[in-house]
Structure formats: C-alpha cells, structure tokens
Amino acid sequence: MNNNLQINRGVFSRIYRWPDGVFSVAYHTPSRSATMLEGDSAEVWWRLYDANGETSSALAYMLANGDFDGDPQTQAQETLDEFREMLEEANLVVGAGNRPTTSSATTSITETISPDLNPEQRIGQLMADRHILYSLVLETTYRCNEKCVHCYLPDITGHKVKELSLTQIDSLLGEFSAMGGFSLLLTGAEVGVRKDFSEILALAKKYRFITSINSNLTKFSDDQIDAIIDLHPKSVSCSIYSARPDLHDAITQIPGSLSRSMATIRRLTAAGLPVALKAPLMTNTAAHWREVAALAENMGCGFQMDLSITAKNDGGLSPLDHRVRDPAVLKDVFTSRHFKITVMDEPLQTGRMPDPENILCGAGATGLTISPDGAIRPCIGISDPIGRYPEDTLASIWNNSPFFDRWTAMTLKDVPCGECENFQTCSRCPGAWHAEHGNYTRPTDYNCFLARAWSSASRVESIL
Questions:
Q1: Which residue among 270, 305, 336, 416 has its CA within the 20 to 30 Å range from the CA of 410?
Q2: What is the reported pTM?
Q3: How many angstroms separate the CA atoms of 371 and 388, rounded?
Q4: Separation between Cα atoms, residue 131 and residue 16, nearest integer Å
Q5: Cβ neighbours of residue 385 closer than 8 Å, sequence gap 6 or more
Q6: Rounded Cα distance, 58 and 273, in Å
Q7: How far is it, in rounded angstroms, from Cα 261 to Cα 263?
Q8: Which residue from 312, 369, 305 is spatially nearest to 342, judged by alpha carbons?
Q9: What is the rounded radius of gyration, in angstroms, for the C-alpha atoms of the chain?
Q10: Torsions phi, psi of 33, nearest 5?
Q11: What's the rounded Cα separation, in Å, for the pair 28 and 202?
Q12: How many CB atoms lie within 10 A of CB 442?
C-alpha cells in the first residue's frame, strides 16, 4: 500500500528553526489560505513538503522523537494518518477521493502572539520580533508601456535607470532566501516590458518563494502567461481604473488598454489563479467605482479600492490634481462594505486609539524594497535609499544600517496631531508624506481631509 501524500498544487512552505521554537509557514494559493505549524508538527510537515509527499523521512522523525506505548511503527503511522486529515483541511495535501479544496485554514502558533491577528499578521509579527528578512519587493523596471496620468514616477525615470541583470537578480534572490526570505513581490512600473520576465519567474520558482505580481497585464506573451500560471502566485494584481473603456484608457493614455488587461485576467482566472482588481479612485473615475466592484465579482476576482494618490518620487505634485474630494462620493466609498483602508496592501487597524508609544509605521520591520538599479529601500513608499545592491549586501544593510534604529525611535507622539478625534481613521504613510512635503512626521492636508471624511461617515453609519 502506498502511504505517500500528494501535496496540493499551489502549496508553498518554509521552516524556521530558532532557539525558542520551530515554525513552518505554509500557503495554499488557490484558496488564499495560510497555515502556521509549530514544534513537531512543523518538523513533520516540512519533511513531507520537502520530499513532495513521500512519507519515509516524516515517519523516521516521528519514530526518533515520539513516545509510544505500543508498536512504534503502527502508532507512528496512525499519528501520521491523523495529521494527514489536518493537512487536508488546511488545503495542504489532496484529500481522499480528490475532493475539492475549501478556503479553511488551520493555525498553530505560540500564545505570545495576539489572537486578534489573522495568520498573515501573525506571521509578520513573528518575523518582525526576530528581525527576519521575510519579504522582498523587487521593482524589476521603471519602464512602462502605459502613461498613467497619476504615476508617481518622474516622466523620464524609466529610460534613465540601469536595471539589475538576470544574473544579479539571481544572486540577490539567493541571498534573500539564505536570510530567511519567503515572500516576494514582483512589480514595476510594468514587469511585462522586461523580455526576461519569464526567467525572473523561473528564479522565483527555483527558490520556492510565495510570489505576488503587480502588472497592468497588457504586455505578456502566451509563454509568459503560461509561466505565471505554472508559478501558482499568491496573487496577481492589476489596476483597473474604470469598467468603462473610455475612462480607463483616458487614465492610461493607451487606447485599448482595458480590453488587453481583461483578456489576460480571463486567462488567469480560468486557470484558477487568484487575481485582484485594484481601483485607484480619481476625480473622473471615483463615481463609477461600483462598476469595477461588479466587474471583479463577475470575474471571480478580488477587489480593492485605493484613495492614495501620491506625489511623484522627485516631489512633483501633478498627480495630486486627481485626488477625490467630492463629499458625496467619499461618503459612498466610506460606507461601503468594500471599503478597507490599506497601507502597502496591509489593512489599517482601526476601532481604538493607538498607543502613542507605538512606532510611526512598520517600514523595514520584515522586508526591504529593491529598485531596478539595485537601490535598497526600507519600503516601496520611501524613496530614499539606505544602500545599493550589489555594492552592499542585503545582510549588511539588514543587520547594520542605522536606519532601523532611527526609524523605530519615531513614534506616534512625534506626529503633531495631539488628541485629534480622527486619529483612528487616519491612514498613516510617512513615505507619502515625505514625497509631498519632505517631512516623515507631518501628515499631508489630504491625509487629514480623508480622516475627517471617514470619521464623519462612520458617525452617520457604522462601517467597522
């Protein structure tokens, strides 16, 4: 009888062994579920995953480390069979009879981590507490085939920046993996303009990263789409400004761009990939946001709104003209079940006044951003580099940069807001503040405007 397990397609995992415990992180990308295991469960799962479901190594570990009151071989196999059921429920292995997977997730983690956090946040806290370089944002290029009116990149940036070679990216990702890295975001400007993008995807697969992709989805060849499908990414995100082709294409300034994006989205969703439509809301599109939400629902995609139109990286303020200020539109947005304020795709925690001793933001807590030319930054929202690859290694920056001490020394009490009644509805992004007026601790006027608008809407109709 073959007792081996079949690892589900789209499962990615990594084990961490520290003096205070052993943890495995596991994702099943089709169901968008995350699982954490600890101790012996983490060790057994990792041996199953690393052996692609073959059970001999896992059983050997159980026999060497278990306590048995009967026949060890029989009891170890029985224990493994029980463990298999848990793994099936977590979508990590194929269940009996190839039954369809669900979106459930099993979480096992130490009680020192807040039970109020979801698995993603728990993983982040675990890594931040140990200063593990867990995530990396790789901006593959600043070139783009679209000319979006609100773009944060200066107009000539993409043509001036020298890009890391494929060999350099391989070395970079290898060092990232060796430091504990697991979560990778590939973004741009537009990743599809790199002719070697399929090779970059192959590197992500080589290092077994849980990979996300941001793209306008208009440039990929059939082979590149197949490579994305084969990678089983955690998510593919695409900005859709309007469900109306004329409005969307007016933002990108490329006729037919919506049609091309949607064609690729259909191929990706047909293959079972998790695709998210992101709707940056602007003056001429915001009133029609529900049409994008309906489009996402009809396509089986996720949906996310965004009001964060920021200044350009060089301080240019032209994008700010596109910010939404219509009170009626904002009330409609803020009272919608779809509305969730996020900062760099992470949900803003609201509902209670934060401790003024909390750090201003978590930039650099668990990850770094790499610009196309190798500039190392603490996050994608902060344009000032703290090093440059390959002249500086990731390890030298992560372990020795004075940035981290300076940044964590800045707390919420450094923000000149006093006892502002709208503080808990404020989406704080120091990088965006700095880009607009050169100060990391002073909110922008628009930031305060949105906080007031959201707070006012919340008092009329509870949305939290």
A1: 305
A2: 0.91
A3: 9
A4: 13
A5: 371, 375, 376, 377
A6: 30
A7: 6
A8: 305
A9: 23
A10: -110, 150
A11: 19
A12: 17
Structure-token match 């973004």, residue found:
187
CB 261 within 8 A of CB 240: yes
Backbone angle region of 145, left / alpha / beta, with phi > 0 → left and psi within -120 to 50 → alpha: alpha
314 HSE (CA, 13 A, CB side): 8
3-state secondary structure of 239: strand
Structural tokens at position 226: 């197949």
What's the token pair of residue 305?
A: 């709104």
Q: 197-255: per-residue pLDDT in tens? A: 999 999 999 999 999 999 999 999 999 999 999 999 999 999 999 999 999 999 999 99
| Strand partners of residue 25 | 14, 36
Helical H segments across 222-351, by residue range:
222-231, 245-252, 257-270, 289-299, 327-334
Q: Which two tokens stand for residue 246?
A: 């004329």
- Specify whether the CB–CB gap between 282 and 305 falls below 8 A: no
The CA–CA distances, whole Å, from 68 to 41, 75, 371 equal: 17, 7, 54
Name the token pair of 141.
């290029």
Q: Which helix (H) or strand (E) holds 178?
A: helix 166-178
Integer CA distances (angstroms), 458 to 10, 175, 288, 305, 341, in order: 39, 46, 21, 17, 13
Rounded distance between C-alpha atoms, residue 430 and residue 383, angstroms:
11
What's the one-letter identity of residue 174? G
Helix (H) or strand (E) holding 278: strand 275-280
Is 80:62 a contact under the CB 8 Å cutoff? yes
Give the integer Cα–Cα distance in Å for 389 and 409: 26
Q: Cβ of 269: how many Cβ atoms within 10 Å? A: 15
| Sheet (strand 11-18) strand order | 11-18, 21-28, 33-38
In single-letter form, the type of residue at position 90 comes to: A
Respond yes or no on whether the N-terminal peptide bond of residue 378 is cis (omega within 30° of 0).
no
Residue with tokens 């901006």, as numbered in its chain: 139
| pLDDT per position as a tens digit, 123-171 | 999 999 999 999 999 999 999 999 999 999 987 665 678 999 999 999 9
The string of pLDDT tens digits covering residues 282-333 is 999 999 999 999 999 999 999 999 999 999 988 899 999 999 999 999 999 9
Distance of CA 20 to the CA centre of its chain: 27
